[in-house]
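Methods: example folding runs. The two proteins below were folded one after another, and each record is reproduced exactly as written to the output file, sequence line first and structure-token line second.
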Amino acid sequence: MPAQQKKLIFCTAGLLSLACALGTAAAVGTQLWVRGTTLCSTGALLVNASGAELHKFIGDIQYGLFSGQRVRQCGLGGRPLQFSFFPDLLRIIPASIHVSVILFCTVLIVFALVGAGFFLYNAFGSPYETLHGPTGLYLWSFISCSCGCLIMILFSSEVKIHHLSEKIANFKEGTFTFKTHSEQFANSFWTILVCSLVHFLNALLIRFAGFEFPFSKSKDSGTTGAVDLMY
């Protein structure tokens, strides 16, 4: 492949990695990871609410990795409440999983920036034979893609398996009991998915640029060695 086309491919991959790093950093600081509604089941049972009356007992909830907001709706009007995970909710959430999600987000940002730097270095400079070359590019892309996948797996398990929304909705609630009415992942969660796919695409771009995979060997090497042994 001509050098100009390789430069174009590496520049594209570098800019994509940089965009992923910025997108992940923006996603970490937002409250747009989960959106949903909660049902005040205690209040609904007290008045035997159904149909249109049930909407008076359905509140809203949205949160991210550090903070969020929930609207407490128990038939007497909504009351918005702000909350933060550290240190308010640290006792009721699976703290190890939540901290791991934040840690992998940080790793994803760092390695996305490192990958962007090496992609641009390979586009405009003379690549080294080790970490600056194709092996390093595959490595940074693989680590970033793996971190993105781990973030989605851990966070989705925290939300779905450990019922994170219900734990948040029932935080410091002695009288009323809230249940999850609806729940869906929001923009920041899908940003991580897009970033993971982009890093996988970068690995394909490296291969498209003409580089072999790091541990692949030429088929002719074994044949040449056998011929040399015969003589």
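Second run, written to the same file directly after the first:
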Amino acid sequence: MLGHHYTHSFLETAVASVNAGCNLELSYGLRKNVFMHIPQALAMGNITLQMLRDRVRPLFYTRMRLGEFDPPAMNPYSSLDLSVVQSPEHRNLSLEAAVKSFVLLKNVRGTLPLQAQYLSRQHLAVVGPFADNPRVLFGDYAPVPEPQYIYTPRRGLEMLGANVSFTAGCSKPRCQQYIRAELVKVVGAADVVLVCLGTGVDVETEARDRRDLSLPGHQLELLQDAVQ
């Protein structure tokens, strides 16, 4: 609210938020934590102790129902480790969910799906800043993944036995430095070309909006060169 000029200080923001019924803050750290000013607001009489208790009570009731205060032995999930979470059954279910969640916007001449039995006979070029960069494949608010379980387009195709050549063209999504000659060389020798483009958290996240939907940097040029 301070950033939108609804209030003039963190203290005013804390008072307005608590009075409006807000009981949880997504804080930025101690230096920019609005609710750290609640004790001052309480001392000044801007909020009452009863109001503060009313705001806190549902938070702790929820935490109790979630079992946060139970002994670890009572928590059935406390004994689970990666051998369970990353078991073949769980990984296969995750794969099934991922496959079923894809949305194919266009499939000219039935190009997809690529048939696995033909991949070894064809030369594939996988290009673009998202072709083999695990770090940029996850969006905002995504969990921190285990690198060993990340399959980039390049890694996935190579595991299928495909003959893959790769170049990023530009190493980062902003694509400010584009190596055209390298891309043209790799694409020119291929039967099938996969161009992996996008934005990622380096370009857009919450509070980092863009003015347009254009591909960042030289990505459009990279795509046009690949098509040509």
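Comment on the second run: The longest strand covers residues 123-127.
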